[in-house]
Design brief:
Elements (H helix, E strand, L loop, with lengths): L1 H24 L10 H6 L8 H7 L5 E11 L4 E6 L2 E6 L2 H4 L10 E10 L2 E12 L2
Parallel strand pairs: 3-5
Antiparallel strand pairs: 1-2, 1-4, 2-3, 4-5
Amino acid sequence: MTRSIKTLTTACVTACLTFTASAAMAQYRGPDVSSDFFQQVLPQNPIKSVRWIKENGHDDQKVVMRGRLLNRLSDDRYIFADSTGKIVVEIDRDVFQGRVVTERTDVEIKGILDFDVDKLKGIEVKSIKVIS
């Protein structure tokens, strides 16, 4: 009988320790690094200004900016401006996805910086979102 009590006690202690360890590890129920929610809360590319890009940007850097498209230079090249300056952006027609954007429309653009040697050529826009 003593042996079965020791076995039962050992089993109970093991079960309690396992349950406690599992419960401690299972306390977090929010998003993980791979979830879309995490990317929205802590974006990898916080919003940058034209001035910041001109002073600190580097080739192939991903950026997010807010401002307006002031005018069209050619079929896919535009002048983008925010409160800190202006920059040339390249936006393929399909990126607009049928949205109408004027010089008074506030937009958020996501794109990649394009440098030629050490000179900033502009931003290749991958997505555009109307924000007002």
